[in-house]
Design brief:
Blueprint lengths: L1 E8 L3 H21 L1 E10 L3 E4 L6 H5 L14 H8 L3 E4 L11 H10 L3 E4 L2 H18 L3 E2 L2 H4 L5 H7 L5 E7 L2 H11 L4 H11 L7 H4 L2 H14 L10 E2 L7 H9 L4 E9 L5 E9 L14 E7 L2 E8 L4 H22 L2
Parallel strand pairs: 1-2, 1-4, 4-5, 5-6, 8-10
Antiparallel strand pairs: 2-3, 7-9, 7-11, 9-10, 11-12
The protein binds NADP nicotinamide-adenine-dinucleotide phosphate.
The site of NADP nicotinamide-adenine-dinucleotide phosphate has 25 residues, from α1 and α13.
Length: 343
Amino acid sequence: MKTYNLCLLGFGNVGRALARLLAAKAEEMRAEFGVAWRITGVASRRLGWGVAREGFDVGRLLAGEVASEASPAPREVREWIEAARGEVVFETTSLEPRTGQPAIDYARAALESNAHVVTANKGTVAHAYAELSGLARERGRRFMFEATVADCLPVFSLFRECLPAARLSGFRALLNSTTTVILEEIERGRTFDEGVERAQLMGIAETDPTYDVDGWDATVKVCALANVLMGETLGAEEIERVGIRALDAMHVRAAREEGKPFRLLSRAWRDAGGRLRASVRPEQLEPGDQFATLGGSSLAVTFELDVLPGLTVVASAPNLKSTAYGLLADFLNVARDEGKEGR
Ligand SMILES: NC(=O)c1ccc[n+]([C@@H]2O[C@H](COP(=O)([O-])OP(=O)(O)OC[C@H]3O[C@@H](n4cnc5c(N)ncnc54)[C@H](OP(=O)(O)O)[C@@H]3O)[C@@H](O)[C@H]2O)c1
């Protein structure tokens, strides 16, 4: 049995859902995987750099009691990880789509402090995948990010574990659920703003929901998929990005009545010259399109492979627990690999 010191960097919707799921699965993790844990660090802008070397009480943490014992108080991320003796840092801070910062600096600092990094922040993968995975390899640590693109839908581990030597030539995907929820609300006769509010209540909107509405979230996810699965370094500025803001409500309702609803679709493909191209924009789904049956927070990707023309993975109505599970599964996979390596 190994007990891991966990540090939670970001304690919003996802960080809190992770703390709840860790607590709910603690017994199972011990009994089935020989993995125990204590949360020795919790940090956010409001909370500061909280440390409890024997582990925070999760119930009190969730009730907002983050009494830090560190003296002097850590002033930045490296001091915090050192004070908390962090072995795994869960990075769940807000997305900044243009630069991926400060999450990239946080992840780099954690790896340099010899901690594994498990992130839900797609900005790190879109902007610094090569650097952070290289640094992790150098340090004998892991940079894990299954929760970044489709909550807990296993896209990266699917390729890593099940599709060796398969070449991905393109994909078509429903990667942003906030826009689906907004469009569905408009289809039901409600307003755009009511749609945003509903997505916020579900906890699925970005901290700044304009990143969903204007297509940034989906664009950064396309970059992440291209970087990791296609060996490309596709920049967000290279992707045609059109959000849903300019869609007229009457037009959205008429499209639904016609059986051809609008959804924000992401696509990547190779052009005749072999160059990778990508787009994120609202498109009308044809009747019978399998994506048209998916509503609410559901997400889906159809991959085109050299060995299989279409492989579709779907997450039906994932929620915050699903995203937290993406992080928890990454953690258990790191622990399993460490066990195999005899650490
Ligand atoms: N929500 C989802 O369904 C979902 C699904 C998959 C992935 N994600 C990703 O998960 C991440 C978190 O999402 P969320 O829904 O939990 O957002 P959230 O509820 O807004 O929480 C964000 C957390 O990050 C902290 N934070 C923001 N900037 C920070 C900084 N510069 N330094 C330290 N802490 C900082 C915030 O602290 P303060 O409160 O003090 O500002 C807050 O605790 C995002 O990257 C998002 O893209 C979310």
